[in-house]
Amino acid sequence: MTVGPPIEELHFSDAPNVSSVPGPRSRELIDQQFELESRVVTYPRSLPVAFEEGRGATLRDADGNVYIDFVAGAGVLNVGYSNPYVVEAVQEQTGRITHTLDFPSEARVEFLERLSSIAPGDLAGNSRLAFGGPTGTDAIEASIKLARANSDGSSLVAFRGGNHGQTAGALSLSGVNKYKTKGRGPYVPGVEHVPYPYPLQQGVSAEEAVERSIRELRELLEDPYSGIPDPIGVWVEAIQGSRGVVVPPREFLPRVRALCDEHDLMLVVDEIQTGMGRTGKWFASEWSETTPDAIAMGKALGGGHALSGIMFHEQFDTWEPGTHKGTFRGYVPAMVAGTRAIEYIEAHDLLAHGREVGELIRDRLRAAGETSPYVAEVRGEGMLTGIEFHDDDGEPFTQFVADLQRYCLDHGLVVWVSGRHGCVIRLLPPLVLTHELAERGCDVLCGGIEALTKRYA
């Protein structure tokens, strides 16, 4: 059976092709949105466009401008916008039944089997899956409940700079202070944060960055005066995406795994952004050959549709029926889409493709960095890349990054900003991004770096 069209046929052929951004219709729609929707709206403040249609790794706005997309819905659309192989199955399923709570169906069982087939390490053949709410933060909440169900303790350990979601438990685990604004607390008590290896920001070698993290984690777990009694687990991102694509040294996760084993703690790896092939493997923890006890999944899990869940070792399946719920655990079109996305990725070898094209992007950006003193570091895995910018004093160059994002938009490339004080351009293009589109996008991005370097020099 043919698994969808080749990736070269998925996109708008004329991308990028823009005139005036934003165009009049985009301005009109943005004004209407801001009149009706809460101030919490984020993306159109930095990217003032109204998108109307997407194909593969390209977007068309309400005024007919066509863009290359290096954001993919913040990592949701790994197989691209409107992938025909996914759309066909979703439309068929929607015409039959859309919601089944947690009653079995062929579509649900098939999705469970496909997810089990890509389980990493010791989870292969020994895993269980649980769905709940539709967003990644729901998966984190479920993982907290799972850890508590398997321990008599109460405290939780996470890492500074992590971003695990926006609900109370997930926010408590997160190490991003700007999300913990007035009116958001109180938070879950008993959460302790330790440093995450970030050699560039810490001003140390990769080895020392790992040593600092492991030393503080060990002290927290073993010092009788650490102030954190009876921890139940450790929550960690395989790569800290929202912090600016901070990729830890390979030895970091195995050493965290070893400490969890030593102290009988559950290791929960947040793969909401990095999972489902984003980094060139199904799960980013596979790069360090580390098998978590539980994996939090979201974003791309539902093939572009809202779905989250956790995959965990069967030994922790101690829940009683009904102790974890979620209305949209029965949203079957997302499960069909998720199955189709896995099949499409496998049939078109998109894990290897993502590794290859991602390295192409990073090579182009490193070459651009050789002629710009403001490029502090280019890092990433697969189709997840961060470019960090510092000013002449070595401080986060926030204005440069904001200007670069706008330059890219004006020239038909959609990118997003993240990292400390907004000093990182974060790239999450769909895995279906072709070599040609990657080169075109890099032409824009590298051209922007060159133009702004001259402006600020």
From TrEMBL:
Q: CDD domains given for it?
A: OAT_like
Q: What name is this protein filed under?
A: Aspartate aminotransferase family protein
Q: Which UniProt keywords apply?
A: Aminotransferase, Pyridoxal phosphate, Transferase
Q: Report which superkingdom the organism of origin falls in.
A: Archaea
Cofactor(s) the record lists: pyridoxal 5'-phosphate
GO terms (molecular function) for this protein are: identical protein binding; pyridoxal phosphate binding; transaminase activity
Q: Which family does it belong to?
A: Belongs to the class-III pyridoxal-phosphate-dependent aminotransferase family.
* InterPro entries, A to Z: Aminotrans_3, Aminotrans_3_PPA_site, Class-III_PLP-dep_AT, PyrdxlP-dep_Trfase, PyrdxlP-dep_Trfase_major, PyrdxlP-dep_Trfase_small
Species of provenance:
Salinirubellus salinus
Q: One Pfam annotation, family name?
A: Aminotran_3
